[in-house]
Amino acid sequence: MTVFDEQDGLPFASDLSEGSARDFMRLLKPRVMQLVVFTAITGMVLAPGTIHPLIGLVAIVCIAVGAGAAGALNMWYDADIDGVMTRTAGRPVPSGRIRPGEALAFGLVLAFFSVMTLGLAVNWFSAAFLAFTIVFYVVVYTAWLKRLTPQNIVIGGAAGAFPPMIGWACVTGSVSLDSFVLFLIVFLWTPPHFWALALFKLRDYGSAGVPMLPNVAGEAATKRQILGYSVVMAASAVAPAVLGFASPVYGLVAVVAGAVFVHRAWQVFRMPEGDRAMVPAKRLFGYSLVYLAIIFGALLLDHLGVAVLRASGVL
Fold it and tell me: Could you list the residue ranges forming a coiled coil in this record (predicted)?
């Protein structure tokens, strides 16, 4: 029999031995790692200047491992509430396949390895930024805000928005307004993405005692904030074209993709109170993943396309 971990998307067999390699891989939150890698690569490519391809590869691996370390430490700390929620009960620590001490040691070793390697191979500014991001996610979000305030995902979401800035810093050794715009897109995307999930997983979070916005402020307030954040996020995604580090073609893509996002957020806003099916919320959650891929994919393709046109003398 095969069971799927809903959060991490990895199948595991019910008769696997404890602490298998796949269980340790699941500790790294591979879906989150994919997002981190993708946005970090975008930041690296868009940054002014150049980086040796091998050094760039090392940097991306370090950022990915650092994100995985944060995920492992998050699962270690949150094992008690993960075991209560149906969405996360199959994770390695609450299910007993990996002991808490193993998850803690695994996360700490990976965090140290990723930060030190990034500092020695790339630059210490980006390494310090990666270390700060890991600490922010584990201490500020996981250990402090997550169980304290319904605004947990707003403030804590900054950790997931830092990777494009870290990628930028790997090339330049600093950050800039342009890199902050990349951060802002992901930062503003995080609340509607997670609150859409929280709407149709409301009982799960309630059982675990996590004060997600729908459980504390109610559905109506959550739907209003989802719509508000969606509008501001869609506007921020157009900023690269306005500021000149992306072309009007990218701007058009961002406008269309953002309009679809806002429309789906509007459908959530209009969703009847107490609707158990939560179809609009599920659709918004699904599209939010596609949206971020569209925006950062378009930024990458736009930058590479402009570079080709300039090299060929067209621009």
Answer: none
